[in-house]
């Protein structure tokens, strides 16, 4: 096994990654969408977008992998960070650098690998876009050009990626270990403690800037029945499906966190009640169109939503009461038949 050398500018590279505030952050639909499209284009079982940190690589998005990080010293991605060039390994078992690498060849079952370096706006190589097959395969010049084009797309997302001020401030204050502890391990979104912290920050910012804020309490309808009838694995799949639909509709500066077992809190900064209602309806419809497989059966999910809004320019806002109001509106949505949006009085 050949370990990848460390780049001469490693300290500057790691500092640049830190400024991006991308390690151990919630999943973002734009990266997931790119990963899914890459999988379809190349017809491969595994795709991942990695960020290569000091001693590990972390997957910002992955398809076909059930892990979200791995050791840097045995990864192929480390070689790409050093060379700055696309790397293609058509058969890892015959490549002298990787044939005896247990992590690559056994744990991740890599036979074919193609990786394209990803640069941030400071021109540092921060990670890779990788496609993997469990069988050897060839990679044409057209394939290289296609992978390169997708890499440019990801780099453009790096440049325009928008997080709310509250999220950015929270990320700046936390080291990577503490960030990871604020993530829901199954759903890769904020946990309750983190989303409550972000809500307080958004409220403080709204008070200073005299803006509006809306929040949504969201609950999966009849979730216990899904678990009881189809089992907990299908229940987990339902949670993941709902979160995916929510993230696909929420804006980059909105925040969503798991508030309870099947309950979520979404924070919509600088958003009026009128605009929040429109967004809530989009969320409700998106979830209702998704389905989960349980054997030969398609399991449908719906959500109920409670909406509460406040205008810091015209009223004194008690953020805790705002959450209570949204929760009461959610209860009204359930009592009115579920799969609907109710607005707090």
Automatic annotation (TrEMBL):
Tell me which residues make up the GGDEF domain: 211-345
What's one Pfam family the UniProt record gives for this protein? GAF
One GO BP? cell adhesion involved in single-species biofilm formation
Listed InterPro entries: Diguanylate_Cyclase (IPR050469), GAF (IPR003018), GAF-like_dom_sf (IPR029016), GGDEF_dom (IPR000160), Nucleotide_cyclase (IPR029787), Rev_trsase/Diguanyl_cyclase (IPR043128)
Listed GO MF terms: diguanylate cyclase activity
Entries under Gene3D superfamilies matching the protein? 3.30.450.40, 3.30.70.270
Task: Offer a single GO CC term for the protein.
Answer: plasma membrane
Q: What is its EC number?
A: 2.7.7.65
| Top-rank EC class of the record's enzyme | transferase
What's the protein here called? diguanylate cyclase
Organism source for this protein?
Answer: Methyloradius palustris
